[in-house]
TrEMBL record:
The keyword Hydrolase applies. GO terms for biological process: acyl-CoA metabolic process. InterPro entries: Cytosol_ACT, HOTDOG_ACOT, HotDog_dom_sf, Thioestr_dom. It comes from the Bacteria. Residues 7-119 form the HotDog ACOT-type domain. This is Acyl-CoA thioesterase. GO terms for molecular function: long-chain fatty acyl-CoA hydrolase activity. Belongs to the acyl coenzyme A hydrolase family.
Amino acid sequence: MSAKPASASRVEMSEVMTPNDANFLGKVFGGRVLSMLDIAAYATASRFAGHVCVTASVDRVDFHEPIEVGELVTCVGTVTYVGRTSLEVTIEVFAENVLKGERRHTNTARVTMVAMDEALRPVEVPRLICETREEKVRFLEGRLRREIRGAHQSEFERLAAGFAAASDARLDELLAAPSLMGVAAREG
Ligand SMILES: CC(C)(COP(=O)(O)OP(=O)(O)OC[C@H]1O[C@@H](n2cnc3c(N)ncnc32)[C@H](O)[C@@H]1OP(=O)(O)O)[C@@H](O)C(=O)NCCC(=O)NCCS
């Protein structure tokens, strides 16, 4: 199995936001940024894997501040963790007011991509060589995120399974509860 450094995957993609990208408040649509993220993740993962990669999942993406029409949006993608056939790509998003030369970091997103062979089956990806301390930390964070996602999904399914089976009275009780996590903790 081949191995590559994280630096071999780095992709930088920039686009100026036009009025076509605006929502009803005149700011850039969240979906426009998600689309750019996904394309950058495709290029980053596929460059690293040497295979076409597809999007398996996108972790939570928070929009802390709006992006304006006319700003230059840049997505910087790097592979931060690899499994057997999947890769975690971290995308940092920046928005720049090109007139003032002011650049701000607007989002960080983590996208899991899966490498596919010609028969559209998942295929092994190169190992990731972590050259710096920062890359080692990022790899461990990616592995931890994957483990937490798995545990979170099982726990969600276990707790939510009770909703469908609950009586109407029990559903009303749950609707009035201040915290479902609190109820779950009390009832084990
Ligand atoms: C992603 C996809 C290839 C996974 O297929 P699968 O049959 O579940 O494949 P496997 O069970 O062999 O899993 C392959 C890898 O994907 C990972 N994976 C599968 N589903 C995942 C998900 N929802 N989130 C994160 N990782 C996922 C597995 O953990 C595994 O990783 P590993 O090899 O590093 O351990 C398949 O679900 C698919 O084709 N989805 C549609 C992709 C697509 O079209 N994306 C664009 C949407 S518009």
